[in-house]
Amino acid sequence: MQQTRKIIGQIFDKKIDENDKYTKYSFIVKNEHGKSITLGLFIRTIKFSHKYLKMTSVGEQARLLQVVKIKFSELSGSFIEYDTKYLNEGKFEYYPLPKSGLGILMIFINHVKKVFTTVRPFNPQKWDYYKKQEGNMFNIEIGGKKDETFKTFKILEEVKK
Predict the structure, then answer these.
(1) For 69-86, how does the pLDDT look when each residue is reduced to its tens digit (9 = 90+)?
(2) 125 — phi, psi (to 5°)?
(3) CA 65 to chain centre
(4) CA-based radius of gyration for the chain
């Protein structure tokens, strides 16, 4: 059985691996007993090319509630408008979705219980990845702006010294 421990100490080293599948940060921390512990932070990120109208009060993070395989041809016009509409220099525009084929519908919820969706083209690797992430938190990246806060983390290992 794994125990959770409160870590008190200073960060002595930080490494950022930009080539990893996730944004990965590693820290070496010494706790109150002088023991060095390596902490790894995996920050899952979902990227959006624009700030869509559906995202008016989304915030910086959201939990992935559900992942559903869909057919683009079965999406209603109302849903497509909701999911793809954004404002560009005072004019409404719509991100183009495929008219046919399979897609991945992801349903998110933020800290104030606002639910929003995103639809992505289907491929088996993305499907497997997102399906395994149901219930996990994601940082929201809009138009290439990364959130550099360390909010979603996992302890990787303890280094005994």
Answers:
(1) 999 999 999 999 999 999
(2) -70, -45
(3) 12
(4) 19
Domain identity same for 74 and 87 = yes
Return d(Cα 8, Cα 10) in angstroms, integer.
7
Half-sphere exposure at residue 61, Cβ-oriented, CA atoms within 13 angstroms = 14
- Of how many residues is the chain composed? 161
Q: How far apart are CA 17 and CA 24, in angstroms?
A: 6
Q: Model's pTM, two decimal places? A: 0.65
Domain assignment present for residue 2? The answer is no
Residue 39 and residue 50 in one domain: no
149 - beta bridge partners?
none
C-alpha to C-alpha distances, 25 to 50, 59, 62, nearest whole angstrom: 26, 22, 20
Distance CA 147, CA 142 (A): 9
Q: Which of 62, 47, 44, 36 is nearest to 114 (CA)?
A: 62
